[in-house]
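Long-time lurker. I teach an intro course on protein structure, and each term I like to show students one example going from raw sequence to a predicted 3D structure in token notation. This year I'd like something fresh instead of my usual example. Would anyone be willing to generate the tokens for the chain below so I can use it in lecture? Attribution to the forum is fine with me.
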Amino acid sequence: MTLILALDFGGTKLAAGIAHLGSREWLRYERRLSPANVDAKTDLEIMRSLIYSLLQGITPSVIGVSFGGPVDATTGTVRLSHHVAGWENIPLKELLEAEFGIPASVDNDANVAALGEYRFGAGQGCHSLFYITVSTGVGGGWILNGKPWRGTSGMAGEIGHMVVDPNGPVCLCGKRGCVERLASGPYMAQNVREILENVDVQAASRRVPQRHRQASVLRGFPPLKQLARHRGGEVLRGLVGDNLQLLTGQLVSQAAADGDDLAKEVLYQAAWALGVGIGNVANLMNPQRFILGGGVTKAGEIFWQGLRKVARETALPEVTFEIVPAALGDEAPLWGAVALAESLLTMK
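-- Reply from a regular --
Happy to contribute to a lecture. Here you go:
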């Protein structure tokens, strides 16, 4: 029976799985977190160990690969990773084919996850969808008329670097106010950390009248220095024992669920930025469905309600669309890698 090897190189984790062609269950599966300050060489060594742990004498027919960064899907060359050093112009497809002697296909994680959700998840039955992953970074992948659409140079779908606040904080890409700079997990944690490090606790605890907070939401979101005037931070500090370096996007979401006002504001800020991006994409391309995956999308109703409200207010009234969570969860890129590998089999 035909076996498919699926690989997922994420910004903070690596995963690999083997599945029979046509199966919806893993024959074998392994996942590992990346060490701190990891580089491409270490990523490759960890993935190689995962692969050989899975194989154990099994020979797959094809390899599908999801990579967390820009990829030339035609050649399978990784252009770079925004989160892991040393990935510039690495011929990943060539390396895998040379070592394992079977065909491989490599693409950006958002493109691959879009394909996975289209084939196996929340995109079934749609002819057009836009998948967005909101995690270490923010990326997007298109399915148009039932086929992946990558753009002229493979860069279609980069909603994470859509500018929604030209006066906002500087993103890793060098621009100000990108969706990723406001909505990704690490940046949410950084925003909270900067507020709590630079503002006196008593000043940060002063309550801003609710009517003022609502007005700021309707106009957009308040700058970070204004967020600091809102009451909050106590729950956040308690979760990390006052060691602010331990803050993560997940803890910001947890604190928001526990009622921390500052965490709720930063979480809403993320929802606002992503909602503006989605509303504009809806106006421009009008897909049937937006499918959202990644760790930040597990933040709860504060995030989802704000996101849907802002997206709907940003889009034209005549533009119809749905915003739904990914059905495949964190495994969307890996199942997309299965679908990517299947396409190699149909080309034989």
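Some talking points for your students: Residues 128-325 form a domain with the Nucleotidyltransferase; domain 5 fold (CATH 3.30.420.40). DSSP finds 13 helices and twelve strands in the chain.
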